Amino acid sequence: MTVTIFLGSLLGAMAIGTPIAFALLLCGVALMVHLDLFDAQIVAQNVINGADSYPLIAVPFFMLAGEVMNAGGLSRRIVAVAMALVGHVRGGLGYVAILASCILASLSGSAVADAAALSALLVPMMVRAGHDKARSCGLIAAGGIIAPIIPPSIGFILFGVVANVSITKLFLAGIVPGLMLGLALVVAWWLVVRQEDLVPPPRASKAEIAAAVKDGVWALILPAIIIFGLKFGIFTPTEAAVVAAVYALFVALAVYRELKPSQLFDLFASAATTTAVVMFLVAAAMVSAWMITIANLPAQVGDMLAPFMDDPKLLMAAIMVLVVIVGTAMDMAPTILILTPVLMPVIKQAGIDPVYFGVLFIINNAIGLITPPVGTVLNVVAGVAKLNMGSLMRGVWPFLIAQLAVLALLVLFPSLVMVPARWFAG
């Protein structure tokens, strides 16, 4: 009965168009009423405690860093470096998109920001080169979702806060799986581009490559600073976010000088608006998370998953299928905030490493960003590239399948996540 009320109130509120944050509040209140525990003070206290979290301070700074990189020319220079390195091969612009996605992922942590920037920069170039527009947009959308996997990752921050798991360990464990997603896109693009009749652009000279790297070196240094600092404990993930934002501002204002002081207010306002949405979601989710614990919902979910509890791989596979289904209808942040408190006790009971689960859980949620009908990244790319959603859905399928294959591989072989994670952690 408790599970029915939880799902019924949440899905019912969403069905009538209630914003997800308010749907989470209503869900928590419904459980309170059902258990005869309703108290407005408890609701208010949980909302305040939900937003009162030191690790969450990283969110606005990573948001700001992403805004600054797009406006200040850092993103464009990264694309130029990728173009100089791999632009000459057959289908080279696609490989440029993948390489640029991986590099940008290590800077912003935002799938939407990265996909929007690359769509604006690369889609017109790919169409002029003779690539199918839908496939080009599908590749860029799929490349954009690498951002929540390679550190820094806003998804890992949210999961770490809700699940009480080390964010630094999550960051370091996400590096290799994120690169595997990029490699899967390389293979998928290689298969797709063989069907197109294209003339590759000329190879960049050594001087042109050197010039592109020299111009983009300030942008390329940032990922190294973040990973080095996290690995050797120089700063925490929250401090890394501040470093990223300050460094991006310095480079955009003082080195590249493409960002004017007059633009700063709009950038800060945009980052603040996005942050406010995320923070209110987290705060509202804490009400339902508290009630999930009080109502002992995880035990009931554990009973449902009891047939899989003796086999961790089978349990992970079942949970991943569940999250894929949820991801088709719900955005990444709400899915993390709703499912994490329900699933974490089950994961611990089954003896599965929380860091390993967190990486696969966030990969799955990231894939949800390009699964129709909700797919936030799909909507952003469609809007930027001026392409209808039906065509974009056709174009993204080969790359979606490739990334789902990586997820399946990680379920079957947990060492692909944990062995590199231990190495990076030192």
TrEMBL record:
One of its GO terms (cellular component) is plasma membrane. Keywords: Cell inner membrane, Cell membrane, Membrane, Plasmid, Transmembrane, Transmembrane helix, Transport. It is a multi-pass membrane protein. One of its GO terms (molecular function) is transmembrane transporter activity. Residues 7-415 form the TRAP C4-dicarboxylate transport system permease DctM subunit domain. The chain crosses the membrane at residues 7-33, 53-71, 139-164, 170-192, 212-234, 240-256, 268-294, 314-343, 355-375, 395-419. The complex comprises the extracytoplasmic solute receptor protein and the two transmembrane proteins. Belongs to the TRAP transporter large permease family. Part of the tripartite ATP-independent periplasmic (TRAP) transport system. This is TRAP transporter large permease protein.
